Structure of VOC family protein:
Amino acid sequence: MFNAITLSQIFVTDQDEALDFYVGKLGLEVKIDQDLGFMRWLTVCVPGEPGREILLEKPGPPAMDEATASQVRELLAKGATGGWIGLTTDDCRKTYEELLAKGVEFTQEPTERPYGIDCGLRDPFGNAIRINQPVRVG
């Protein structure tokens, strides 16, 4: 029935700050940045992987009224929206060191797990991000 997941969404409170973080620090690239009049449609993707986008959505119209958007912003600041992103790398420790040098603040250093090596961080808005180096099978 389905053959791909093409779009995921997380909330951010400032889309320009989100660009600085996701593109400037994490190294993702802008896929779409379009002013629709009623909202800014801003997506990023892993370079060379344009088939999977992350919508960096600002809470508000047209998806929700201002009262709801205010509640979402409050939950987001607490890291309680449930939104998170998983990124894969070939070398978790090297990626960790490179991002640390760019000023990215981590919540967890690279750690050996049964499924690979991973580490954790939060974006400037409270969204959790996991970086994983999967175990190589074979």
About this structure: The CA atoms of residues 29 and 48 lie 9 Å apart.
